[in-house]
Amino acid sequence: MSPASAEPESTLPRRLWRSPDPRSAYDVVIVGAGGHGLATAYYLARNHGITNVAVLDRGWLGLGNMGRNTTVIRSNYLWDDSAAIYEFSLKLWEGLQEELDADLLFSQRGVINLAHSLHDVREGMRRIGANRVNGPDAEWLTPSDLKELCPIINVSPDVRYPILGATLQRRGGIARHDRVAWGYAHGADALGVDIIQDCEVTGLEMLGGRVVGVRTSRGPIAAGSVALAAAGHTTVLAEMAGLRLPIQSYPLQALVSELMEPVLGQVIMSGAVHVYVSQAEKGELVMGAGRDTYNSYAQRGSVNIIERQMSAALQLFPIFNRVHVLRTWAGIVDVSPDASPIIGPTGVPNLYVNCGWGTGGFKATPASGWVYAHTIATGAPHELNAPFSLERFTTGLLVDEHGAAGVAH
């Protein structure tokens, strides 16, 4: 292209973040440039004035679960501690577009959890009561209410899993996952945080039993604190410090369809048949399914799980029977023994972990970053993540969200 025909510099797209070379030392090194790692870096800088921070990723920003989830946002969890942190997160979501000056395609279209049995109905009513006490909005829908709200859903009683009712959180919804990552990355970068991609952590530097830095594919980096935020791979990183975390990692299946005209205006979830579906802004159906039964870091689709998922989806939505699947994939869910996260110090000085979110990681992104940043900056947990310490597996003070979360992990 000749200089005369070159596009004016002012019309070129601006870079959202720098690509600096790593410095020799930082106050805080965060391992994992997904939503939680980037949000933590942003809130360290914004809330605590700690800007000498590096976020490292072995690949590119958003490579892991941040780009491999189904983007559902809700706070209607059963237990007090869970509802508190997810409701705080939802409130942050409600102002996040203005906060980051970014169009995140945040849509509070409502999240509906279906009830297919008397047990489901009782559990739904129980959760509505708990939500109303703890702050999240919640209401009950009869099958006719549901049909009025979502005309394409099948509420016939003559199916294998008839719909007996549903819970509704109107403030729940979806957001665009990559835009969330980009928004936090841009915000953190603007405050002075270094985001360093293609920088794999290969070891932790230890001195006198303390973590004092990381070894990477781009050289050693000293650190005052090292904060792990790498989902299921956090266990691999923690083992570099001799720490074994109670985390199991599984592939969680999902898929998207070809583009369609707008037909689905809510997020529909069914724990009994384990399918959840929403329609993205462009028109594709985004569907989540069950997890593989074996431990793995694989990110490929599993035909047997997808087949069961499609069978369930077509029962609920017969209108989808001619829709083509465009692609399938898996995200890596890291599941703790009580299906709740682990956020805080590890017992190894200067080493912090943020993991164990199971299927709840994306919706928790803002709150996770907020409380993790607080813990790293002050050396003490925020009141919202205090119940989710690693020590609870010794004390027995578990936050058991198996099933109570509204979807099986």
> What would you call the quaternary organization?
single chain
CATH first level of the largest domain: which class? Alpha Beta
Task: Give the count of structural domains.
Answer: 2
CATH topology of the largest domain: FAD/NAD(P)-binding domain
Spatial separation of the terminal alpha carbons: 54 Å
DSSP strand tally: 18
Label the structural class: alpha/beta
Low-confidence stretches: 1-12, 405-409
| CATH architecture designation of the largest domain | 3-Layer(bba) Sandwich
Mean pLDDT: 93
Helix content: 25-40%
State which percent range the strand residues make up.
15-25%
- The total of helices stands at 9
Name of the CATH superfamily of the largest domain: FAD/NAD(P)-binding domain
Task: Give the overall silhouette.
Answer: globular
Element-level helix/strand string? EHEEHEHEHEEHEEEEHEEEEHEEEHH
Major sheet description: 8 strands, mixed
Q: What are the defining features of this structure?
A:
alpha/beta, FAD/NAD(P)-binding domain, 2 domains, eight-stranded mixed sheet, 409 residues, D-Amino Acid Oxidase, Chain A, domain 2
How would you describe this protein?
With 409 residues, the protein is of the alpha/beta class. Helices cover 27% and strands 25% of the residues. It contains nine helices and 18 strands. Helix 1 runs parallel beside helix 5 (177-190). The radius of gyration is 22 Å and the shape is globular.
Summarize the structure.
27% of the residues lie in helices and 25% in strands. The protein starts with 24 loop residues before the first strand and ends in a 14-residue tail after the last helix. It folds into two domains: 176 residues, FAD/NAD(P)-binding domain (3-Layer(bba) Sandwich), CATH 3.50.50.60; 151 residues, D-Amino Acid Oxidase, Chain A, domain 2 (2-Layer Sandwich).
